[in-house]
Amino acid sequence: MRVLRGEVSEFQRWLQKSERFAVLTGAGVSAESGIPTFRGPGGLWRQYSAVELATPQAWSENPGLVWEFYNYRRVLMGEKRPNPAHLALAKIEKEFQKLGKAFTLITQNIDDLHLEAGSQNLIRLHGSLWEVRCVRCAKVSPNREVPITPAFAGTGGVEGNGPSKAFREADLPHCSECGGLLRPHVVWFGEMLDPEVLASAQKAALEAELFLVVGTSAVVYPAAGLVELAAQGGAKIAVVNLDVPVSHRFLDFVFEGAAGEILPSLLQFPDS
Ligand code: BJW
Ligand code: ZN
Q1: Which atom of ligand 1 approaches the CA of 190 most closely?
Q2: Using a 6 Å cutoff on CB, does residue 222 contact ligand 1?
Q3: Is there an atom of ligand 1 within 6 Å of 54 CB?
Q4: CA of 50, closest atom in ligand 1
Q5: Cα separation of the two ends of the chain
Q6: 34-62, pLDDT tens digit by residue?
Q7: Span 152-182, pLDDT tens digits
Q8: pTM of the predicted protein model
Q9: Between the CA of residue 73 and those of 42, 155, 228, 234, 249, what are the distances in Å?
Q10: All structural domains of the chain
């Protein structure tokens, strides 16, 4: 680890002192579990960047292609397990609970690895890969099908251009209640986040005394705005990232390195 700003011991004193601790995570926290980040190497599927397919435009033009992409991610993410970074966050939450102090974990990830690691007070800003929503009646349901429908079996390879076959309407998943088309229950570019989910994240950021930002490029709003909000609310801001951008602006602690290596030793009270 490279300590670019602040000191580990000082961070840990803040951890002990803080009554309210909030953490924002991004794709980097799951990188060591083997899940590619969006804007780093591996962020491409066929000729598409992930952010090109995570849009309502892509969905309206070609829902079969978008489902093929999300089906590929179900195959990939379904076999990944939480890494030491997820586990360290779940562990510190338990310590905060024991002490009667507030801990909130806010994630932009849709992989649910924080849940699997045991995190409880978790806010999922961008939804879950393992839930679907009906575009007609808006019903949200858990769905762990892999492949999402039999038509997607064996599709999704990273080689190739465009969809691997011409998916028909009947190949796509449909709502058991109303027959409408099902889509992934995730937030695409240009879509609003669930207002209640966003409001609870903003409250946790504003009230935090210590705010830790792990493995996110922090370029996507409104998630990125939570860091500014926490700073405005008076929180100490700490960053853990493999590759910290040059601008540190209002950061109090900057630890450069892999989250899975840093968090287990960083997230300790100084006298433990
Ligand atoms: C490691 C590591 C290791 C690697 N250890 N670290 C204000 C200004 C400008 C634009 C906007 C604005 N407000 C809203 C917008 C528009 C847009 C936006 O933000 N655009 C920007 C790109 C400019 N936002 C939206 O559209 C949002 N909706 C909204 O605001 O509605 C109202 C509105 C609409 C339109 C206009 C204005 C207002 C919705 C955003 C939804 C984002 N959705 C996605 C897809 C989710 C589903 C899916 O997964 O398929 O969310 S896009 C993608 O980016 C995904 C991620 O959650 C998100 C963030 O990415 P993340 O996690 O930061 O990943 P990376 O890859 O970028 O970074 C990884 C980091 O990890 C790197 O820093 C590495 O160094 C690091 N790292 N290994 C530690 N081992
Ligand atoms: Zn329906």
Answers
A1: 26
A2: yes
A3: yes
A4: 50
A5: 21
A6: 999 988 777 777 778 877 899 999 999 99
A7: 998 877 666 666 778 999 999 999 999 999 9
A8: 0.96
A9: 12, 11, 31, 38, 35
A10: 1-35+82-126+193-272 (3.40.50.1220), 36-79+128-186 (3.30.1600.10)
